[in-house]
Write a structure and sequence with these properties.
56% of the residues lie in helices and 17% in strands. It has 211 residues and is an alpha+beta fold. Helix 2 runs antiparallel to helix 3. A hairpin with a 5-residue loop joins strand 1 and strand 2.
Length: 211
């Protein structure tokens, strides 16, 4: 035990000698306070970590919210792009169909003139005797070729099915009669050429069918 302060004692000569005072005991309250301080020494650091974790979770939640919002806008943009592409295709298809209908209508108006031009050409060829007649035939043939080429550029072509099997979807029978050398059910003679546009019949060919 450590010596404490000395209290005076009477000496042999009647004087007072110092005597060591006993050490003051540590109270129970002081011990409990020390233990509590030791146990809670790290509490401020734990609270700081909790705040940081909460802030990190908040940042993650905000990023997730922005990512969800971005995905929503992206999906909306993709839908809009798909709708526009479908609209563009429909519009192009409608325009093409309108052009085709207009071309077909114009061609039907021109077909009688082409028929008459073909008859005029045949008559001119059969009666061409002079140089003037031959030049006239050449001029008529040139006009017919130019008109046929113009129709071909928009998908319209003439067809003359002589010798082919009769097809009611392509041919219009004007008469049926026995024809020497022709098989029954075939086209023996073409009165008027037919026309079709991209495989669709504009006017069937008028024909004589062999019996």
């Amino acid at each position: 035990m450590t010596a404490g302060p000395k209290t005076p004692e009477p000496g042999r000569d009647g004087g007072v000698e110092p005597v060591d005072a006993p050490e003051a005991p540590v109270s129970g309250f002081e011990e409990e306070r020390s233990e509590y301080a030791a146990e809670h020494r790290d509490e401020p650091e734990s609270a700081q970590q909790t705040d940081e974790a909460a802030a990190l979770e908040g940042d993650i939640a905000e990023l997730q919210s922005k990512a969800d919002e971005r995905d929503e806008y992206l999906a909306l943009a993709q839908r809009a792009q798909a709708d526009f592409e479908n609209y563009r295709k429909r519009a192009a298809k409608d325009v093409a169909a309108a052009e085709s209908r207009g071309t077909a209508k114009l061609a039907r108006e021109l077909l009688p003139a082409l028929d008459n031009l073909a008859l005029a050409l045949a008559a001119a060829e059969s009666g061409a005797e002079t140089e003037h007649d031959r030049k006239l035939v050449e001029g008529i043939r040139l006009v017919e070729n130019e008109l046929s080429a113009a129709l071909a550029r928009v998908g319209i072509e003439a067809y003359s099915p002589e010798g082919e099997a009769f097809d009611p979807e392509l041919h219009e029978a004007m008469a049926k009669q026995p024809v020497e050398g022709a098989s029954s059910g075939t086209v023996a003679e073409v009165y008027q050429r037919g026309y079709r546009q991209n495989g669709v019949v504009l006017r069937p060919a008028r024909v004589v069918v062999a019996e």
